[in-house]
Design goal:
44% of the residues are buried. With 244 residues, the chain is an all-alpha fold. The protein has one domain. The chain has ten helices and no strands. The longest helix is centred in the last third of the chain and has 25 residues.
Length: 244
């Protein structure tokens, strides 16, 4: 189904998804766009969702960025950005050429596999090499370009040796820079832009407000609790997307 934000029912559904996604985004540093996409692809064609989600999530990225710049590991983020950029256009092409039901199930499968790997307790002790970071970035670029999912990067960062605040900072910084690149690249490649700016500003406000509350909650919970809440919630949404 096409998405029309001038329709009150469509706008309300999107706002509810933004409220849930924003809370998780602020709390964990990721999962907001995934949540919105997994919830709304049951109703709307992903082609009409992804670019809107990118624009909405950018508002929260700006809000979360100042508290993360000093905590991020810039070498890791830089290599991921460089390699993600190479393959991201392919993902954008796939977004506009894959049947919507297959796209929804693909989002669910990717999300489920990534989160289940983390729930299994898989961790590695040493920082990733440049070759591994490049491989992760290339694969993630396709996924990110097609769905705006960051989980393929998140799964490797969360499984690493860094503390929760450093991991969260790396995720936020990488996704912020990639979003800044995503928007002009999407338009440059000739895909349709955005016209419903007032509705998007409202949705961005809902998303940002919920993310602010989520970020405050992050400061009050232990690292293990932080991982569990974010991951189990995404598994639930992934399963629903796969079986629906």
């Amino acid at each position: 189904m096409s998405l029309d934000l001038s329709n009150l029912e469509h706008l309300s559904l999107f706002a509810a998804a933004c409220f849930l996604g924003g809370g998780l985004r602020g709390f964990s540093g990721f999962g907001g766009p995934t949540t919105i996409l997994l919830l709304l692809t049951h109703v709307f064609n992903p082609v009409y969702l992804v670019f809107k989600i990118v624009l909405i999530d950018m508002l929260v990225n700006v809000h979360l960025l100042p508290s993360t710049i000093k905590k991020a590991h810039w070498r890791t983020v830089a290599w991921l950005i460089a390699s993600t950029l190479v393959s991201m256009p392919l993902g954008m092409y796939l977004l506009h050429h894959i049947e919507p039901s297959w796209m929804r199930k693909s989002v669910g499968i990717i999300s489920a596999l990534c989160t289940l790997l983390l729930i299994s307790g898989y961790r590695y002790k040493n920082s990733l090499s440049v070759i591994k970071l490049t491989a992760i970035g290339l694969f993630s670029g396709v996924i990110f370009g097609a769905t705006y999912l960051v989980l393929t990067v998140v799964v490797f960062l969360l499984a690493g040796p860094d503390k929760a605040d450093t991991t969260r900072a790396n995720i936020i910084l990488w996704s912020f820079i990639m979003t800044i690149i995503y928007i002009p690249l999407y338009l440059y490649l000739g895909f349709e832009g955005e016209t419903e700016w007032l509705s998007l500003l409202f949705l961005g406000g809902v998303y940002a407000g919920s993310a602010f509350v989520g970020a405050r909650l992050f400061k009050r919970v232990a690292e293990q609790r932080y991982r569990q809440v974010a991951l189990y919630f995404l598994v639930l949404l992934s399963v629903v997307a796969i079986i629906s």
